[in-house]
């Protein structure tokens, strides 16, 4: 990171209301008015009611920001620094703060501002970045975090399965790893898969890809060696898995620097000592055929010169024991639209529709959708002027956002996670939690 050419003047955090929560001036080149200037321009960029781009310049000052949980992370600089490096730095700072605070909310930041100032002093010196590794920083950080409980919703699921745990279990600060108040030894493994698919108007797939991540967070004492075993039939290479039924084939992958691959080629086992904090063990990409979780079928009808009708059918092709959650189907309507009304199936529950006249977009929200089911939305659009050929081009594409827990279309599996005994020979049996989640990344159907 360290480079004399990378000079950051200020780092500050702003609340959604524009309050300065944390402000660190590294070079005394700019005054504190930059906070007000930034917040004014990020909401009303160039005098219009629109959000500013991630990097912009006002009066010779470069502003670079990232929004996380409603909080603005902002860097300022008068030198010409790399925007991509600045955004990567901000991303890593958010991860470090989350590692040390447990959860990342305005309340937790205000409760831990002394700890966060200590972290900022170690992360950067006189505007030059020193390091953003949670594992390395722990040797220089002496303040203990103030734990802030995440606000619980009114509706609580009953705890009926002792083999499961809440997703909030990973919201503990990493300093609890070696402290008595931290509780039991445990390790969390997340397999996240983000799907990108493009359909044509007939519902056929034009392009499909999976970007996968194996992510871990360790609360194990003694920093033992771990062995993570994946599918034995896992093949790597562009053409490796094609045509072989049941074989899990990935195009390419990369690993965290702590990973040793001595047994990976022969047994598909990776070995490592987990660093502190949340880290990515492995990234992988798949472009071969896989089971499409949701299929979209759009139908376009011209009722009259001033009326257009769009019917969108969505079908869940996931296993029946899985369900998609927080599904949002969105599509734009023509600029000449005066009104848009949508109707759903008879007797449906957990669904809602909305027409955003400012963005000229129809939203269809489905809370939960079980595998093997399908739903249909019929939208009638009224135009202010007669239908032309350009109107058809202005409708669509249809985009879908969703999440499917306990499911991954690639079939990549963790066979086992073995925790090797430490030198002290502790006889503990730590908890191992594994979670599979599939999310949409770019899920689009052309009309």
Describe this entry's structure for a reader.
- The chain has 447 residues and is mainly β.
- The chain has helices at 33-43, 83-101, 106-111, 113-123, 134-137, 264-267, 389-394, and strands spanning 10-14, 20-25, 55-58, 61-68, 71-77, 124-125, 128-129, 186-199, 205-218, 226-230, 235-236, 249-250, 252-255, 269-272, 278-286, 294-304, 307-316, 323-332, 337-344, 351-356, 361-370, 374-383, 398-405, 414-419, 431-445.
- The protein has a nine-stranded mixed sheet, with no helix packed on it. It has a five-stranded antiparallel sheet with strand order 2-1-5-4-3, with helices on both faces.
- A hairpin with a 2-residue loop joins strand 6 (124-125) and strand 7.
- It is globular, with a radius of gyration of 25 Å.
- Residues 153-160 have low confidence and may be disordered.
The structure class reads mainly beta
- End-to-end distance, in Å? 46 Å
- Report the count of strand segments: 25
Oligomer class: single chain
Report the portion of residues in β strands: 35-45%
- Number of DSSP helical runs: 7
Biggest sheet, open or closed, and with what strands and sense? 9 strands, mixed
What do the pLDDT scores average to? Answer: 86
Percent range of helical residues: 10-25%
Radius of gyration: 25 Å
Q: Shape from CA axes?
A: globular
Residue stretches low in confidence (pLDDT < 50, at least 5 long) are 153-160
- Strand arrangement in the largest pleated sheet: 13-15-9-8-25-23-18-21-20
